[in-house]
Specification:
Length: 319
């Protein structure tokens, strides 16, 4: 039976040239670049709550880092260092081998160094703390939306939620292609780090959509003390969701599905061409979905301009 220290040495210790000191001491040592602020975020994934216990450990390693990268993307920060706290029911080396490969492949792609963590026995769960850098005073905050801003969303929405409904037996999908597409959105989200960084100086308020569009846009509105008018027909639904609209479950996936890990951001309306050029340079598709209003509240408008009833708010662990 490998010891805790064997596991750390074997699966979680890799060279960390970007840290003054990485794994192995009581604390890591990091040098923050001049003129930069640290952006720090943590996100926990709990077995049975955020993932199925039998999910492919490679994808779990990917997602564990991806959900944190998405938070830093939403601040416009460049991710640099990660800490991993891991509770494991048993020291299954085969599982750890694949999980750590998924995590380190993602870390390599986004140039993140794993500099420390904690390893303990317990019900399977993993928590990453991610540290990144952002030019001082320039981070993209939820509170920065202004009256008249356009509201934009990256990529498409609802695919991950539809994939989850499919796994739960609550929705059908047409073929292997659709299943693959939705499950990839669910298990292997692609954090919009390049877009977030490129939006510095372009976007006003920004958030990543993890709990569903309406809930997360709602956070921007609350923090910015503003309202919004959203055009339902403009929303970029995932193709498998779009094919089934206006089915109520599909509307729910689109508006309140969760696990999208796209960015929702606002920008001055006269800078729409800059937004489009910035997104194109980051190789991400963005869609204008509505406008920030001085009048509070979130209004969802049908194609004919009629107000749609919004019942869906999004995912909340305690409601
Ligand atoms: P301490 O007892 O001082 O908290 P630990 O025994 O928990 O130290 O950890 C030893 C070293 O291994 C520390 O540098 C810690 O940051 C690192 N570490 C522990 N678990 C992990 C992990 N899952 N991933 C990366 N580093 C880890
Ligand atoms: Mg410790």
């Amino acid at each position: 039976m490998p010891s805790e220290f064997d596991l750390i040495a074997r699966f979680f210790t890799r060279p960390t040239p970007d840290a003054v000191l990485g794994v192995g001491d009581d604390a890591a040592l990091l040098a923050v670049s001049p003129g930069m602020e640290l952006a720090v975020s943590t996100d926990m994934l709990v077995s049975g709550q955020h993932f199925f216990p039998d999910v492919d450990p490679y994808l779990l390693g990917h997602k564990t880092l991806a959900v944190n990268l998405s938070d830093l993307a939403a601040m416009g920060a460049t991710p640099r260092w990660a800490l991993l706290s891991l509770a494991l029911p048993a020291a299954e080396t085969g599982w750890l081998e694949v999980f750590s490969r998924g995590l380190f492949d993602m870390a390599a792609r986004f140039e993140v160094s794993l500099v420390g963590g904690d390893t303990t026995r317990g019900p399977l769960n993993m928590s990453v703390t991610l540290l990144g850098e952002v030019p001082a005073g320039q981070a993209l905050r939820r509170s920065a939306a202004r009256d008249g801003d356009d509201i934009w969303v990256s990529g498409d929405l609802g695919g991950a939620a539809l994939g989850l409904r499919y796994l739960l037996g609550e929705a059908d999908l047409a073929d292997a292609g659709e299943i693959e597409a939705c499950l990839t959105r669910l298990h292997a989200p692609e954090p919009r780090v390049a877009l977030g960084r490129a939006l510095l100086g372009v976007a006003h308020a920004t958030i990543d959509i993890s709990d569903g569009l309406l809930a997360d846009l709602g956070h921007i509105l609350a923090c910015s003390k503003a309202g919004a008018a959203i055009e339902f027909a403009c929303l970029p639904a995932h193709p498998a969701v779009a094919a089934r609209l206006p089915h109520a479950l599909m509307q729910r996936c689109l508006l309140a599905g969760g696990d999208d890990y796209e960015l929702c951001f606002t920008a001055a309306a006269e800078r729409a061409h800059v937004v489009l050029a910035t997104a194109a340079a980051a190789s991400v598709h963005v869609t204008r979905i509505g406008r920030i209003t001085a009048e509070p509240g979130l209004r969802l408008l049908a194609a004919n301009g009629a107000l749609m009833q919004v019942q869906e708010t999004g995912f909340d662990h305690f409601s």
